[in-house]
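Many introductory courses stop at the sequence. We go one step further.
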Amino acid sequence: MLYSLRHCIASRHTENQTDPITLSELLGHGDLKTLKRYARPSFEHKTQAIERVEKLNAKAV
């Protein structure tokens, strides 16, 4: 149960663009490798990130 809560908190912070170093410290992790275990962005969040990059690329052309 505790790990599910940590995963949920880490994922929500990641989706709201909390920087990895701050989030790692908030969760009490010693390094970013541990954070990667818990913080998994949703499919929707990944899709939105790709769309933002595509918009930037379209403006640059």
